[in-house]
């Protein structure tokens, strides 16, 4: 049987349409939560980190951690497993964009309405005032646009070229919108064939390759045709031949792979250097210090050692970033205006005990050191610090973080 994928705009009555389609066809609804849970189970990543891939906002540490790319790879594998094991499935939500667009028996549907209709639904179904509803719609549209661009390279998430059927629900009506989807299931173009089954197998193998590469710290585009795998490098590479050999050595032994090709994408960004993720060094380090020149220089020196870092200049900003972005290791000054380092340390270890905090101060006393260690600081260092000493301390803190996972 054909598979249905439904992508929608917020307040476009997608839930009601989907229920009508499920009732009429007997298809099983697979929501985003189910795909996220499966991806988390396969990868060992938390469901929260997997689900963050759907958000437009990307972690400030992502250049080094590749966390979003790893999440997408595991989401694709979770989707591939569903497509291989079952039929009569309806995928609704962000995950509906995951299947390869060339799988013919996937009926790709978009449900969207004009803004005035969406605002009316927001008011009628949720009681939202117009101003609040507009804010929610714009945020959701932003997330969906970023997601579609990530997966499909298309900036317009509602573009007709992405779908077999685009339904303006507000103008068409809920009942007729559902009927249109059901009617299209009999279309010969979306019937299951041997060729379309083979494309699911290609999609599955590509997803497996992506997850294996992600586990080795690599992020490249993967295309599969039969048993032949093509890896596309969309970054400027300093030592291309060595990278190509390394990628081929990783992918070649994967079951089902008979041939590996590597190419450099036509539109690669020459200013964007390819970085392999090194799991032995910290990739999510937050530097907190009000001495701007010092902390910016320190960040640059850490990046030269392939340690990904972000910088903030006060305690309040540090607490906000920890809440939103979850750094793994923090280098924290004690004496800062506003919320001082000891208070930051106290709150971080209370609310996010897995974050390892290294105190780096030029003004601390022995009493300060004792207080910090009692609060759970990983280490207490004095300025000026030897960069090698700091690097080794960071690596040790990172080892503790990884062991805790």
TrEMBL record:
The keyword Nucleotide-binding does not apply. SMART domains: REC (SM00448). InterPro entries: Bact_response_regulator, CheY-like_superfamily, P-loop_NTPase, Sig_transdc_resp-reg_receiver. It holds the Pfam family Cytidylate_kin2. The keyword Phosphoprotein applies. The modification 4-aspartylphosphate is found at residue 333. Residues 284-398 form the Response regulatory domain. PROSITE patterns: RESPONSE_REGULATORY (PS50110). Keywords: Phosphoprotein, Two-component regulatory system. One of its GO terms (biological process) is phosphorelay signal transduction system. It comes from the Bacteria. SUPFAM superfamilies: CheY-like. Gene3D superfamilies: 3.40.50.2300, P-loop containing nucleotide triphosphate hydrolases. PANTHER family: PROTEIN PILG, STRESS RESPONSE REGULATOR PROTEIN 1. This is Response regulator receiver. The lineage of its organism: Bacteria, Pseudomonadati, Thermodesulfobacteriota, Desulfovibrionia, Desulfovibrionales.
């Amino acid at each position: 049987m054909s598979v249905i994928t439904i992508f929608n705009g917020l307040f476009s009555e997608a839930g009601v349409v989907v229920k009508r389609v499920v009732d009429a066809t007997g298809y099983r609804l697979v929501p985003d939560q189910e795909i996220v849970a499966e991806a988390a189970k396969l990868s060992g990543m938390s469901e929260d980190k997997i689900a963050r891939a759907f958000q437009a906002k990307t972690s400030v540490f992502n250049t080094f951690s590749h966390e979003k790319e790893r999440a997408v790879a595991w989401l694709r594998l979770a989707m591939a497993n569903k497509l291989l094991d079952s039929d009569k499935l309806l995928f609704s939500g962000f995950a509906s964009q995951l299947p390869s667009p060339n799988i013919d028996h996937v009926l790709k549907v978009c449900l969207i309405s004009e803004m005035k209709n969406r605002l009316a639904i927001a008011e009628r179904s949720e009681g939202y005032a117009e101003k609040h509803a507009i804010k929610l719609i714009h945020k959701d549209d932003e997330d969906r646009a970023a997601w579609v661009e990530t997966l499909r390279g298309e900036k317009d998430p509602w573009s007709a070229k992405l779908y077999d059927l685009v339904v303006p629900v507000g103008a068409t009506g809920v009942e007729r919108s559902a009927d249109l989807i059901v009617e299209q299931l009999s279309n010969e173009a979306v019937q299951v064939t041997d060729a379309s089954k083979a494309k699911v197998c290609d999609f599955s193998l590509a997803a497996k390759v992506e997850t294996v590469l992600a586990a080795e710290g690599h992020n490249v585009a993967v295309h599969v045709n039969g048993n032949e795998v093509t890896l596309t490098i969309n970054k400027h590479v300093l030592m291309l031949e060595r990278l190509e050999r390394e990628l081929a050595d990783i992918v070649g032994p994967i079951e089902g792979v008979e041939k590996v090709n590597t190419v450099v994408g036509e539109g690669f960004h020459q200013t964007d250097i390819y970085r392999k993720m090194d799991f032995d060094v910290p990739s999510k380090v937050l530097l907190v210090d009000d001495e701007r020149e010092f902390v910016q220089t320190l960040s640059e020196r850490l990046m030269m050692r392939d340690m990904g870092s972000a910088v903030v200049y006060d305690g309040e900003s540090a607490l906000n970033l920890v809440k939103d972005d979850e750094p793994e290791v923090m280098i924290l000054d004690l004496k800062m205006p506003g919320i001082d380092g000891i208070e930051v340390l106290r709150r971080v270890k209370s609310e996010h005990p897995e974050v390892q905090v290294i105190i780096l101060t030029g003004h601390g006393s022995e009493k300060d050191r004792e207080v910090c260690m009692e609060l759970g600081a990983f280490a207490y260092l004095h300025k000026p610090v030897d960069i090698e000493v700091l690097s080794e301390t960071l690596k040790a803190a990172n080892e503790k973080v990884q062991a805790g996972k």
